[in-house]
Amino acid sequence: MTKTFNIPVTILSMGFGRNMRAVPRRIEFEGKAIDFIDCGLCTTIRRGSALAQIMSMSDGINTFRLRSDNRGGSWTLLSVS
Fold first, then answer.
1. Which of these, 14, 7, 1, 2, lies nearest to 67 by C-alpha position?
2. Separation CA 23–CA 68 (nearest Å)
3. What digits encode the pLDDT tens for the residues 1-18?
4. Beta bridge partners of 39
């Protein structure tokens, strides 16, 4: 079952994925630290001059979909399945 959110999350740790793309390795969600073990699909969306990056991350149990504003500071949790 997929739970939909649209809430900002705090990134506790960043790492690098393929092609040296910055990806979150640990986030804080509902007072808990979530460690990601795998980065799934990742895409970049353009709206006018604004870019956003959407990626799916897995902690081994759940899949988290995150959106970055591509300015380096704001990450939003879109859904957990």
1. 7
2. 10
3. 899 999 999 999 999 877
4. 57
* Nearest in space to 15 (alpha carbons), one of 26, 7, 1: 26
Q: Residue 42 sits in which domain range?
A: 3-80
Tokens standing for residue 75: 């990450």
Q: How many domains does the chain have?
A: 1
Query: Could you tell me the pTM of the whole model?
Result: 0.87
Contact of 69 with 52, CB cutoff 8 Å: yes
HEC secondary structure over the chain: CCEEEEEEEEEEEEEECHHHCEEEEEEEECCEEEECCEEEEEEEEEECCEEEEEEEEECCCCEEEEEECCCCCCEEEEEEC
Would you give the DSSP letter of residue 1? -
Residue type at 49 in one-letter notation: S
